[in-house]
Amino acid sequence: MKTKQMIDRRGVLQSGLALMGGAAMLPVACATGAGARTREGSSLAGAKRLVLVELFGGNDGLETVIPYEEDIYHNNRPTTRIPKKEVLPIDDYRGFHPAMPNLRRAWDEGRMAIVEGCGYPVPVLSHFKSFEIWHPCREIGRASGDGWVGRLRAEAWGDDDRTETVVHIGSHLPYSLHSSDHAMLAFEAPESYLFIGNERDESAYAEAGKPGMDRETSGGAGRVLERLRRKLRDAQETSPRVIEAARRYEPRVEYPRDELGRSMRVVAAMIEAGFDTSVFSVALGNFDTHGPAQKVKHRELLASWDGAVSAFLADIAGTQTEEDTIVLAYSEFGRRLAENASNGTDHGAAGPMFLFGKPVEGGLYGAHPSLTDLDSDGNLKHNTDFRSVIGTVVQDWFGVEQAAVLPREFPTLPLLRKA
Amino acid sequence: MMTAPSLRLPSLVAGVSLALAVAAPAQEQSWGRRSAEHLLARAGFAPTTVEIETAASEGPSAVVDRLLKERRAWKKVPPLLVKYSEFGLDPRQRPLDEKLPEGKALEELIARRRFLRDQDRSQFLDYFDRWVRSMIRGDAPLRDRMTLFWHGFFTTSFQVVRRKYEMINQHEMLREHALGSFADLLRGIAHDPAMLIYLDNNTNVEGHPNENFARELMELYSLGEGNYTEVDVREAARALTGAWAGAFGEYEFHPEVHDSGEKTILGKTGNFGPEELLDILLEQPACARWVATKLLRYFEGVEPSAERVEEYASALREADYEIMPVLEKLFSDPLFYSEETLGARIQGPIEFMVGICRKLDLDPPDYYLFRATAELGQCFYDPPTVKGWDGGSAWITNSSLMMRGNCVGVLLDVFRSEYVTAEVRSASADAGDGMVGTAVMSPQTKAEAMAQAVARMVSLKDDRGWEPNLNLTRLVVRSGARSDEEIAAFLAEDWLAVEPSERVVSIMGEFIARERAAYGLGAGPLLMSGPNVELLLRRLAHLLFSLPEAQLG
What we know:
Number of strands of chain A: 14
Largest sheet of chain A: 9 strands, mixed
Shape of chain A: globular
Helix content of chain B: 55-70%
Oligomer: heterodimer
Largest interface: A-B, 65 and 81 residues
Strand content of chain B: under 5%
Structural class of chain B: mainly alpha
Number of strands of chain B: 4
Strand order of the largest sheet of chain B: 1-2
CATH topology of the domain at 49-188 and 255-404 in chain A: Alkaline Phosphatase, subunit A
Distance between the termini of chain B: 18 Å
CATH architecture of the domain at 49-188 and 255-404 in chain A: 3-Layer(aba) Sandwich
Shape of chain B: globular
Number of helices of chain B: 26
Helix content of chain A: 25-40%
Number of helices of chain A: 12
Structural class of chain A: alpha/beta
Distance between the termini of chain A: 24 Å
Order of helices and strands of chain A: HHEEHEEHEHHEEHHHEHHEEEEEEH
């Protein structure tokens, strides 16, 4: 039997594992967390948590992890290239974009894994359609059925119908979170997650949402109404908790005041307030630039990403949360090697993925895509299927069999620290 | 409630009624207000009380007849590109591909592009506004309703296509054939530039077929999953090679990149091109089944039985894919009026917002319904995926449920500054920073959050001078409702498609009583008019339209 450990937040897993006789087969990261998996007060020590950061619009991987020693890179990118002396070196081949000084520190501290050359077999250069491959993690790219997080949720926490198990913060909702059976908690910002009204409006609104009204509407409408009332009650229960959590939160560091910074701050606030969330999702958009403004814009976006993720890592440093939380950042594709006619770069194929956190085994994975062996359109070829990274998170972090979430089993990478 | 004469639904389609009567005698409803409201709401948009009463007294055959036949002749509305010509630009020029003439400065390029983008965006918003206003006026309800249906059936996203000229033309095509033949719609969409851009058919060339459009054409637009093979997709893609969107937003067929070799598609072999492929698809029994399934699911809000799908698929085939006879059959089908379907459908954001404007006889501010429906998860031409909107319970998340109430509040203009400052801040001063009742949110937090939320919602309407042309006081005074409970019952009856329980009515009655006290209005009939009476009633309307009951229709 394959190991398939449900993440159980109620601490009953321990005995279950023994019964399965699978302790030796346990993914290490899962086994280490299991001992601490108890509910103490509101903090959920040991409950594994994933924060997804979606960089949408096609982040230029070559200007993020820069092959600064390659003349081909400099020659192909007369405008967008970062001069060698400005690159923050990782080794004698590649280095970070200068807008990433804080994430570079995370790298130095071994809390950052870079998986280079990620992609999938037949590259699709439409944002929308590339995400239709990323989000469901299917072989054929189209969003139908549940997203991979939706399937993970059904598999690992299917008996838990609270919306807060999966939380998305921000305006751009990734399809990966979609689940036909389990509603998630999604809101743009805490300020927009509320019913506007005064005390009297609210109390009437809440009263009307209570179950078991005296004279029930019969037939199909009655059943739909009960479902809607349940949503209403869930909204009324979580909305003030979200807002209060965000307001009361005193982060240990300052977060950037842009959208991603604010979103990451809310993630930290919700964890601190005891939300029982396994997957958080946030996003940073506007990577879709192609022209003369691209170089400046890309620098700003990387700086925003650098600031928000590093603030979050610094904020949770030294807490239990740090032991239980990893951050995965990705984009739907990278950019073509050669610059386009308007001093920018066009949609490409392979790009890097990033995993952050104390449980992460820092280092380089995959391989930097070749700058000479390009596909027929001049795109970088991938060498690592992005589903290997997601499969690793599913299997080694959450302890869930890949087959329940992905179309098949992908080779895992040793991205997570051994105990 | 008005009791209508017990009147069986007539058979408008010969030979159908007998079979149905035998199949489901228990489901039959007598014609009355409830069935009249149901028909008007589903075939068009939320009817007003007057419309319901008229329809109830007219009888079903007259109403169905009017819905189907009493329609304006369809007239194509040209895309609103005049603004381009005013600036000496080619209306067909792709604004986002605008190249800077040699030697111009970067700032000029950026400014020019921004200008064109703004023009492009506003023509799209204007176009959508025109469509929703037509829904609100109700002069072509069934055509508008069916256009909304096809807009979700055939999906295209402006996120991919980007240029709105093609989007508007596609929508006009859907509108033209909305009540015509499905065969024309399918042929129209296969020749539609926006669709061909959206699903990459412009890169579908001999030797390098792009299967994207071929796949969705079969899976989503004609046959449904399981009714074709991967080989059929590949072969269909070959048949579609060279069917391109031209540079000026017109369909172009490029024989030089078309694969003219032999293909085998769904059992037929020949040197098929796009036209033959469409004929083959339309010949498949699965095609009518797919359209029938989608139609029944959409109009009834419940999953149709296999027998029912088969029955409607046959009707569609017999009608040679003409939609009208099938709609006529549906609107005369006793099962359409069963207890399982009446009021059991969750309204989509567009119909929800349109319905409120209709019920209140409100003229919304420019572009507001575009923004509000986008907030609520149904942005015009921006489906979440190529599959379109799932609809039904997927429309409602806990944030969208509250957001629906907030979107209504803007239309009722109840989110005024005093709402937050006076009400919430005083509560916060009284209670200090402690907890109030069962809420976990402190009054201080709440005041801040509320102020931000109000500012955010109000910013969704552009025109800050806009005020709703509403007189709810007059409506209530004329109704003759006197006690608080009578007022609540009257408005709930007037506005909601689902009769709320007595308990909900009494909660609303109590709300009025508390508000009277807050506004110092005293007990008794609300004969005294004035800004506070109107505000009280608008706030009641806000609450009623925020209820779970108000999401049904």
